[in-house]
């Protein structure tokens, strides 16, 4: 009997993000609340972008070069606020602020 193929945790998350927009919004909200490691936000944005047709498609929709978006959404990325806003808009979400 052939064993079922397993998928990585990252691929599992990307599938869930693709299938459930509300989950994507909650996942991004949780990343924004992570005060210990701001890189979490970049990783989550990259996963959501991958779930929305890939980095190239999101970069085009956001008006950003694909290579620049890969760098910005890497663990060592340091994107501008304008990049974050453009990416979240391209993936169908928005960044918001509320009183703590």
**N-to-C span:** 55 Å
Can you tell me the overall shape? globular
Tally of individual domains: 1
Number of strands: 0
The ordered string of helix (H) and strand (E) elements is: HHHHHH
Helix/strand structural class = mainly alpha
Strand content: under 5%
Oligomeric category? single chain
Q: Which range best describes the helical content: under 10%, 10-25%, 25-40%, 40-55%, 55-70% or over 70%?
A: 55-70%
As residue ranges, the low-confidence spans are none
Which whole number gives the mean pLDDT? Answer: 91
Number of helices: 6
The profile of the biggest β sheet is: none
* Rounded radius of gyration (Å): 14 Å
How is the topology of this model organized?
Blueprint lengths: L8 H11 L1 H13 L5 H13 L3 H8 L3 H7 L8 H10 L10
Helix pairs in contact: 1-2, 1-3, 2-3, 4-6
Structure description:
It contains 6 helices and no strands. The model has no long low-confidence stretch (mean pLDDT 91). α1 packs across α3. The protein has one domain. The chain has 100 residues and is mainly α. Helix content is 62%, strand content 0%.
Features of this protein?
100 residues; mainly alpha; 62% helix; 0% strand
What is this structure, in a nutshell?
The protein has six helices and no strands.
